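Example with several molecule types.
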Amino acid sequence: MSPENAHKAAAADHPILDLIQNRWSPRAFDANTPVLDSDVHIMLEAARWAPSSNNAQPWRYVYGRRGSAGFDRIRATLKESNVIWAENAGVLAIVAARLTFDDGRLNPHAEYDTGQSVAFLVLQGTALGLWLHQMAGFDAGKAVETLGIPEGFVPLTAVAVGHRTDHLTLPTDRLRERELAPRKRRPIPNIAAEGTWSAALNM
Amino acid sequence: MSPENAHKAAAADHPILDLIQNRWSPRAFDANTPVLDSDVHIMLEAARWAPSSNNAQPWRYVYGRRGSAGFDRIRATLKESNVIWAENAGVLAIVAARLTFDDGRLNPHAEYDTGQSVAFLVLQGTALGLWLHQMAGFDAGKAVETLGIPEGFVPLTAVAVGHRTDHLTLPTDRLRERELAPRKRRPIPNIAAEGTWSAALNM
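Resulting structure tokens for the full complex:
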């Protein structure tokens, strides 16, 4: 099916990759269509090949498929406002970063590089026809406890992965409205400047 | 031309996007081939559309084209071991993150989300036939000073963008060897676990 909200391609001012133009973070996941094991592995393979400072590869993923104990553990870490839609995803994951290099020194790029890996995973998932929605709204302490995340690793985000369905399946008016809202971004002059910093970057 | 080191596609265990499989971070940049203005704008357009926590879009880019004062300012922030190859790139950039939300609260995902934006930029550049190499080795304090980066923003990485050339153009044996070395990554069981944390993730 093609949900009504399939029109949310980025209003891009320059010709960018379809994958980037058409990716967005939905909430209306289809509880009846699982995510294939092979697709999970392809996404993780893409996540592996991200660049990182000193090739430290600080990214770590713990995931669970809908119906499994792992999925339920991750679901239980989510804020209630996320549970109400994310529980329909096919896969839930917690993304963590390793904070040090092998020699024990602090890795100042651990979070930045973990973001790069997740971006690769997201675009690979998009290429497979899947949809991903990252969440800051989860209880990191609870994730540490219930998933057994050891010292030296910090959970950064939760991710829902699955197939989209109609926005009308969402449980509240507000969620249904947000699902149809156009995507907005700062114009290029507000994120990039040539030669030196520009006041337009301060906002 | 097709440099000798064009064989560095990732030894991927699963079928991933060509863009991800073939991207790597070269040092042998071709000083004679500039990066088109239009390609810079397309890369920044891709960088705009990354996802971010609360749609805060914390990423900021300052860039300069080879031969410009901006390029020279960024080059002067690089570690000497990077200058010797990165000065041949067509564009140098400093990537910074805004540390707070609009309301002044700390944005705990500023670095992670900036990493996502750069990953989008890197894959878009790759799609345009360009090559990108991120560097942790630069003087962030000097970048703040010479580029006029204000309080509340922190420089995270430098990026070289350009066209590749033969590894033999690199100035040292060590750089020439590294340019031909195969790309290595942790196997999937060392970055991902199903259901709960696994000891294989600790290494």
